[in-house]
Amino acid sequence: MKMEEKPIDLRSDTVTRPTPAMREAMMNAEVGDDVYLEDPTVNKLQETAAALFKREAALFVPSGTMGNEVAIHILTQPGQEVILEEGSHIFNFELSSMAIFSGVLARPIKGRRGIIDPEETKRSIRPKAYYISPTGLICLENTHNHGGGSIYPLELIEAITSLARNEGIPIHLDGARIFNAAVALNREVSALTKGFDTIMFCLSKGLSAPIGSMLVGSRELIEKARIARKILGGGMRQVGVLAAAGLVALRTMVDRLKTDHQNATLLAEGISRIKGLRIDPTTVETNIVIFQLERLKADAQEFAHQLRLRGLLCHPFDHITIRMVTHKDVNREDILKALDIMETVCAELLQ
After folding, report:
1. What CATH number should be reported for the domain whose range is 20-252?
2. Could you give the dihedral angle defined by the CA atoms of residues 45, 46, 50 and 56, in that order, rounded to the nearest 10 degrees?
């Protein structure tokens, strides 16, 4: 790859650049001090997010991790356990924050492509005894990153949220990519999330805003969340310059996610025809493509290095697993070129 050429970046949908409309909105944003609740653009973003999810309130936070951890903090008590899937983002990529910040312990359970079974969830709820750490929270992730962008079937969501309600256990959704699920299913996000106490979603992934996530829930919970956000240093001042991009994202970037899904399907089908790579393309539901190496004289790190030398960026998960994520800054032609690059590298590395 020539140095002046732009690489095809499939590492994540977090690499998206803000659109011209976002940049213009940011430049012209009306701002105020959000710690004083006086930033009109932030207030509008929060009201818009709450309305989309048919909730009372929402809170703008700098990151999805902060949104998740704030939710865990306000929904649990120290010494409790949190049920979640073993491959979930909260368990694997948030630095044990639930233990550090909230004094709670994760109880991970094995899912299928990130989806946990209601019966297994029920068995994981701790018995009520004074010498056993009580179950304080259930967390789901939809779509599931490590599950390859898998979508929770609506009937499972309803079963698990009903279980939580019957057991008196709050339930939180890591919905970083919930709009991908909604577009894929042609359902409103409110329909996919109605049984949860809190929902976090990201503005900075497929929706392409430069920064920020939202936490939505009841007015009472969001007021508690505002305090927890401040404890974590998340109180922001004239942050309307960022909230403005979030408003554009919600208004203009949701429907186009279907293009990312189409490109992911094209990518997965192409990978399935390359010798040295293994994937079942029928498992690709949204914009995340995860595949394995087989019979190559390289591990995932070396394979990714060879792709990078040719202008293709990806994310190695383990020694044989690669993740690629489609987004607005890669098009169909980029996907076809990426497949050519992978085929060339595999031909060189086949044993």
Report:
1. 3.40.640.10
2. -150
